[in-house]
Amino acid sequence: MTSNKIRKQASNNTDIEVSTTDPTSSYEATSKLNVMKERLRQAQLSFNVALVMSAMCGIFTLFGIGLSVSGNFSDGSIAAIEGLLSSVPWLRLAKDANDRLDRLNAEEK
Questions:
Q1: Which H or E run contains 85?
Q2: Which residue, 82, 76, 78, is CA-closest to 63?
Q3: How far is 20 from 61, CA to CA, in rounded Å?
């Protein structure tokens, strides 16, 4: 025998059980879904920022390597090292965004 008191809402590959008899559980489920959507949005945004900034640091590193090869070794090596070192925080930000998405996925289950 199936119960009519619980139904599932599918949104963004997320199943949330909502009781149709208790209005507070519907509000809590909606709030939880909104929080999860906001977390997902922030994780995607931080990953995109990290990706763009890492690409810019990579271009700066390539520019430094080009300077080194063209004869300005001291200036080129400094630029290349700065490009590599400045990409580290952005890679860490991308890793943190990925970890947040993993935690969000674990909370769903």
A1: helix 73-108
A2: 76
A3: 58
- Which residue do the tokens 């700065």 mark? 82
87: its two tokens: 């990409």
What is the torsional sign of CA 36, 104, 108, 25? negative
Identify the band that residue 2 occupies on the pLDDT scale cut at 50, 70 and 90. Answer: very low
Residues 86-107 pLDDT 10s = 888 888 888 887 888 888 778 7
pTM of model > 0.85: no
How far, in Å, CA of 98 to CA of 51, rounded? 12
Contacts of 40 (CB under 8 A, 6+ apart): 12, 101, 104
